[in-house]
């Protein structure tokens, strides 16, 4: 169960020249919750995570992790943090084991514990059999799993994942969420995830919708849907006459090809429509509120531009030969 705040942001601001990346952000993330930052391209998600990791310095405001200020006490703030960055950051000239061992060394994991912890995280992400393989021989899905293992190996209490599933196929994405769920059952862990896959944030305890550096709404997926979503009725009339008749009766209906979409204002609406036009339609679907609708209502945009950016990144990654040697 989520507990008290473990990450606290107060009046946090960050500019790049004239671009406002974060505008007066106030936010508490709770111990042991799965928290999603959802926003389109350029919303400020990566900037926020980079400030929390002490990679970037904010222009104004404060951010603390477990009570430690990320600017004044960066080492202590980072001690309990595991990070999976958007861009792959493994050393592909080393083996799976060596990557993890090196990370343990940096985080001062005692030598006698290293082997056990590495074996544990490799088992979790199903890479035990790949322990001695060079990272360059792994598929992109396996590399992501290894990065997750690396973020966990120093027993981090908080894990940041910046677009952990971007560029992966549906099965690999489901697998990664499977590991994260399993992990949260095994131990206390706060997950902070940025994603543009709306279906992924349904798994999270709370979702923060961010756009142009500002928080638009925070809540549970169900709470956001009931506060900002709405039901809609989609019908396909039997012919052009029926379509014209229904359009005239419901001028608020939107039209897509031969389908009409009507906002549902109350519980009686669908029944009343059916009683009147039931024999004039060949398809009738009552859509439940979705987070997509919530996002659209709050930002005035769909998340599609973000998808293009994810794809571009994947292509860029492919152009570099699918490898990263940072
Ligand atoms: N180094 C930089 N120099 C100038 N502008 C930047 C820099 N990094 C980010 N920005 C701008 O700041 C804003 C926030 O970017 P940020 O990368 O934090 O967004 P994001 O939500 O993580 O999007 P994405 O997932 O596409 O990276 C954007 O307008 C972006 O163009």
From TrEMBL:
PANTHER family: LINEARMYCIN RESISTANCE ATP-BINDING PROTEIN LNRL (PTHR43582). Gene3D superfamilies: P-loop containing nucleotide triphosphate hydrolases. InterPro entries: AAA+_ATPase (IPR003593), ABC_transporter-like_ATP-bd (IPR003439), ABC_transporter-like_CS (IPR017871), P-loop_NTPase (IPR027417). It holds the Pfam family ABC_tran. Belongs to the ABC transporter superfamily. It comes from Paradevosia tibetensis. One of its GO terms (molecular function) is ATP hydrolysis activity. This is ABC transporter ATP-binding protein. Keywords: ATP-binding, Nucleotide-binding.
């Amino acid at each position: 169960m989520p507990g008290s705040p473990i990450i606290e942001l107060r009046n946090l601001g960050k500019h790049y020249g004239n671009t406002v990346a974060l505008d007066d952000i106030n936010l508490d993330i709770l111990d042991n919750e799965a928290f999603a930052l959802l926003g389109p391209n350029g919303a400020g998600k990566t900037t926020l995570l980079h400030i929390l990791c002490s990679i970037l310095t904010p222009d104004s405001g404060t951010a603390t992790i477990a009570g430690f200020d990320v600017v004044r006490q960066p080492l202590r703030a980072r001690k309990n943090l595991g990070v999976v960055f958007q861009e792959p950051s493994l050393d592909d000239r080393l083996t799976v084991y060596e990557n993890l061992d090196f990370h343990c060394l940096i985080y001062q994991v005692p030598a006698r514990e290293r082997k056990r912890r590495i074996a544990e995280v490799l088992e979790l992400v199903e890479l035990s059999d790949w322990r001695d393989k060079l990272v360059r021989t792994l598929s992109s899905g396996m590399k992501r799993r290894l990065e997750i293992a690396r973020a966990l190996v120093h027993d981090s209490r908080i894990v940041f994942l910046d677009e952990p599933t971007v560029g992966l196929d549906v099965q690999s994405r489901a697998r990664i969420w499977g590991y994260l769920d399993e992990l949260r059952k095994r131990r206390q862990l706060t997950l902070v995830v940025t994603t543009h896959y709306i279906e992924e944030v349904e798994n999270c305890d709370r979702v923060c919708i961010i756009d142009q550096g500002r928080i638009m709404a925070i809540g549970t997926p169900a709470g956001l849907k009931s506060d900002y979503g709405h039901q809609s009725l989609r019908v396909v009339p039997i012919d052009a006459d029926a379509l014209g008749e229904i359009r005239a009766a419901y001028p608020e209906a939107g039209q897509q090809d031969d389908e009409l979409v009507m906002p549902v204002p109350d519980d009686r609406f669908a029944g009343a429509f059916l009683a009147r036009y039931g024999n004039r339609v060949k398809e009738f679907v009552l859509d439940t509120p979705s987070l997509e609708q919530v996002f659209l209502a709050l930002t005035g945009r769909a998340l599609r531009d973000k998808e293009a950016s994810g794809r571009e990144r994947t292509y860029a990654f492919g152009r570099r030969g699918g490898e990263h040697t940072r």
